[in-house]
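F-box domain-containing protein, Rhizophagus clarus. Tokens?
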Amino acid sequence: MINRLWCETAIPILWKNPWCYSGINYKNKNYLFIIIASYLSDDTKKFLTRHGIHLPSVSCKSFLFDYLSFCRSINIINIEIITSIGSSLVYNQFLLQQEFYGLFMKKFPELKYLDMKSIKHQIFYFPEARLRFESLCELECDTSIDSSYFYGLARLCQYIKRLIIFNRKLGNYSGIAKLIEVQRNLKYFEWEDTHWFRIAESDSCKEVLLALTDTINHLKLISVNKDRTLQRVLPKLHKLKSLIINDLYIDNEEQLKMCVYRDLEVFMVDHYNLKTASIIIENTGRRLKKIFLESYELNDYYGNFKADSLIFIRKIHENCPLIEYLCLSFSPTKEHFNELEKLLKVCQYVKLLLIDMVDISRERTEEKFLENGEELLKTLIRSAPTNLREIRFLYDYKFSLKALEEFLEKWKGCSLSILTCEPIYKEEDYVKVINKYKNNGVIKDFICESSTNVENMDENYALPIGWHF
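Tokens:
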């Protein structure tokens, strides 16, 4: 009624995937329930009404748009929430969901996206399902679903490009493996364990990894088993553009050198495997733009941490001239600061830099941390690239008021965001200095948060430091 052109443009976009808005409470969205229910046939409405399900009297013929004809997606959990509006009884909700899914198979011109976590309905048995599932591009699911369901999908879906699996239950994964095996163009694969159990206890998980083929461009594995299966799988995935693994353990160095990824742009790994990461970085095609490290307590890693972190920095400035987002973890030694300075001079495209300093010496005093901080700021003053816009500071260093002000004075002309986990910068003297440089445009933001938030805050960038992807 206000702007017909805007309405005709927006409705197809909003209804392409009306279940995907995380900020919406679908329990309160009666209009969604009314619109979908209005498409049901009169006989179906009578059947459902006899079971005590409350249905709207409005007909879809009274709508300005054929809303379901724009839809290309199904989200099982949100559908379950919406059907609860019609009845509070579990059986009635089941009946209503069954009718809704049958309606979707008839009305949707194609199905591109399916989130079927916790699904209870065999929706691929509907007469029109074959045509809808042939076009499926993206699937999210979990391992609580019986393997037979995945066998059914494998019969219909062979062109899935993006597959995301949440491992909620140990069991038989042969159905998932079969679904992966029949795919002809799988580009993105994600497996995430949602509970802290040992996946290695189930041999069938190996089937899933071994089913992956070299069509994969993006691989994300969180808390996957630590056996030797990855050593067999990773070398054949030579087309990877992003590799995200929170426990990249490969003990065979010769086999690790076979992991050659000439197109790799995004690489995430944990602090414990810096040596492994360095070998992979050396074998990339100098296209890496993002390197992130998952933070751990490094008590068990002190033995090799100095040497491994030094090599890690060196491999980055030797092989990553295009790096933009970078997480570094190292000891505050003269050698490490020298390598850091070389990196900053070579890698001129760095926009975001997280520095996690780990002082493993016995001299863990306030004075030592202030000394570490002063040396770090001097290195940044001398060599920081002109593109640098955000620095995140973690752990074993602090900045004296004098050192911080000298650093900010040298930074004039750029609007810099600083994130730190040290509460000292909330003290009055520091706040005065920080506000002074905020007012003259040197500092855009100065945020003191928990270490977890410093790693994971992502307001400024689509790909934050941490494990969101």
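The longest strand covers residues 162-167.
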